[in-house]
Amino acid sequence: MIDVTVAADAPIRTVTLDRPDARNALTVDGLEALETAIDDADEPVIYLRGSGGAFSAGADLEAVGDLDGDRERAAEFARLGQGVARTIEDSSAVVVAGIDGPARGGGLELALACDVRVGTPDSTYGEPGVTFGLFGAWGGTVRLPRVLGEGDALELALSGRTVGAEEALRMGLISRLEDEPRTVAEEIAANAPDALAALKARIRDDGDRATKERREAQAFGRLVEAHADDVDTVLE
Q1: What topology is assigned to 3-188 in CATH?
Q2: For residue 170, how many other CB atoms are within 10 A of its CB?
Q3: Cα 149 to chain center, whole Å?
Q4: What is the pLDDT of residues 42-69, one digit of tens each?
Q5: Cα gap 116→111, rounded to integer Å
Q6: Of 219, 197, 215, which Cα lies nearest the Cα of 205?
Q7: pLDDT per residue over 140-170, tens digit each?
Q8: Which of 95, 108, 152, 156 is nearest to 130 (CA)?
C-alpha cells in the first residue's frame, strides 16, 4: 500500500507519494488517499512530490495483475485513476508537480493533470505501457496531446521510450528545470491567493470564446475591487 503524507504549512500543502521501495507505485488505496489529500486542501498551492528519488512509477503492476484480466474491473481501475487526475486538475489550488527521478505511466499522467510541472536534472519520463500490451488510461490519451501536441504525444506513447529532463523540457512536458522544484511552488505561493485561483480557473476554462471572455472580465472586476488598495500602492 502506498503511503500518502501531507504537510500543511500555509500557503503550501506538500503532498508526498511515500512508497520508495516500489518507486511510489500507486494502488487503489494510494489513489484514494491521494484524492483525499488534494480534496481536503484549503491552501492556495499544493506541491505534489514523490519520495526516495522517484516521482511515481505509475500503477502498481501487482494491483493490475490482481484484476485477473477482468474487463469491467480494469475499466473501474482506470476510472479511479481518471477521477484522481480530474480532482488535481479541478482543484481550486494551483498544483505544482515536483518531479525527481522517474515519472512513468500513471505517475506521468497524474503529473500531466497538475498546473505546473517542474523537473530536476535527474528526472525521466515515459509511457511504457505499450511495451507490455497496455497504455496509460488515467487521462493520458487526453492530456498528453494537449500538453505536447499530437505528433510528440503519439511518438512518445507508441514507442514506449523514456526521455530525459532536457528533452522533456524541449517537448514542453515540463515547464521548468530546477535542482529544487519546490522553489517554483514557493514563487507561485508568494502571489495573491484569489488571483491564483482566478487565473487557474480562467486558463482551464473550456467554454466557448464569448463565455470565456465574459468570465474573464467578471473575474478581473472582482480582483480590481478586492485589490484596489494594492493597485494604489503600486502607482504611488
Answers
A1: 2-enoyl-CoA Hydratase; Chain A, domain 1 (3.90.226)
A2: 11
A3: 18
A4: 999 999 999 999 999 999 888 888 887 8
A5: 8
A6: 215
A7: 999 999 999 999 999 999 999 999 999 999 9
A8: 156
